[in-house]
């Protein structure tokens, strides 16, 4: 005797008369090739009735991690990785006190011009 929500031993849960045609696997598809900057080709499949503007021009290539475009002759450029900066490098880039005060004054002047006056 079977009780509760358990399936009968040996039966598949969800098994039924559905075939591929019921899952949409029979839909017409088109293959689009994408190439990354290293020349790797990736093929993606899209529904044949999908409008051209909904098919992306650029994707991420799973082989290299670089972007890949549909134009083989002009693939997207290789992404530029910024070198790691130490805290000291950021400190050296900081503005001087005079530059900071000038920027603050310029921002306050713009606000005053927009609002009339700013409470100090």
UniProtKB/TrEMBL annotation:
Region span, Disordered: 1-24
Name of the molecule in the record: RNA polymerase-binding protein RbpA
Keyword vocabulary terms for this entry: Transcription, Transcription regulation
Function of the molecule: Binds to RNA polymerase (RNAP), stimulating transcription from principal, but not alternative sigma factor promoters.
Name of the gene encoding the protein in the UniProt record: rbpA
Pfam families associated with the record: RbpA (PF13397)
Gene3D superfamilies, per the entry: RNA polymerase-binding protein A (2.20.28.270)
Family according to the record: Belongs to the RNA polymerase-binding protein RbpA family.
């Amino acid at each position: 005797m079977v009780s509760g929500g358990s399936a009968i031993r040996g039966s598949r849960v969800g098994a039924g008369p559905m075939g591929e045609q019921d899952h949409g696997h029979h839909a017409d598809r088109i293959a689009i090739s994408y190439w990354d900057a290293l020349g790797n080709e990736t093929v993606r499949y899209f529904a044949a009735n999908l409008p051209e503007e909904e098919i992306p021009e650029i994707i991420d290539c799973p082989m290299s991690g670089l972007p890949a475009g549909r134009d083989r002759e002009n693939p997207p450029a290789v992404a530029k990785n910024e070198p790691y900066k130490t805290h000291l490098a950021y400190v050296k880039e900081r503005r001087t006190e005079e530059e900071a005060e000038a920027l603050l004054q310029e921002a306050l002047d713009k606000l005053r011009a927009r609002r009339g006056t700013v409470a100090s």
